[in-house]
Write a structure and sequence with these properties.
Layout: E1 3-8, H1 13-23, E2 30-36, H2 42-49, E3 54-56, H3 64-77, E4 82-85, H4 94-99, E5 104-108, H5 120-127, E6 131-138, E7 148-155, H6 162-186, E8 189-192, E9 195-198
Parallel strand pairs: 1-2, 1-4, 2-3, 4-5
Antiparallel strand pairs: 5-6, 6-7, 8-9
The structure holds 5-O-phosphono-beta-D-ribofuranosylamine.
Length: 200
Amino acid sequence: MKRLGILISGRGSNFEAIADSIEVGRLEAEIAIVISNNPHAKGLRTAKRRGFKAVCIRSRAIDREAYDRLVIEKLRQERVDLVCLAGFMRLLSAHFVNEYPRRILNIHPSLLPSFPGLEAQLQALEHGVKYTGCTVHFVDERLDAGPIIAQAVVRVRDSDSEDQLAARILEEEHRVYTEAVRLVLSGDFRIEGRRVLRTP
Ligand code: GRF
């Protein structure tokens, strides 16, 4: 069974969606460890309550690579095969990325490469796009970059507030993250340039 390491900083709903998918048999994997850089993350409490191994590794006042080394050590200890960033609000060092080549995924609440960075849903709303959505991609050391594994489209309604739009995007995030993890774990893909292509 492939072992997932999930990195969070806050609410943890994408972590929960992955946990739910595993529970109902939609995804064949196990969650080896949940790591939060933020001791107050709601997702950390949820993970513990649901019986997962969950730890906080605080990132405050520590150099990026030194921090990443601590996280890598934990991931290694737990024999993690695939790292899933789920609302983890930090850039990874090149060292981290090189330790898990093509084995780190991230989810972002826009159709990348549009609207990277913070408040992607608000950026989309204010830009006036009619469609936005979410993206799961491989992680490199740049922000919200790396080859795209899966996307889902969400229509922007004229009446949308930021929260309403974010809520509909989040529903798609929860669905699409599981799909992307499943594809990557299956190994049934190849990467050509930036393109992630399914192999039959
Ligand atoms: C999600 O919108 C995700 O796309 C972004 O951060 C948010 C995390 O939400 N990277 P949650 O912690 O998974 O509920």
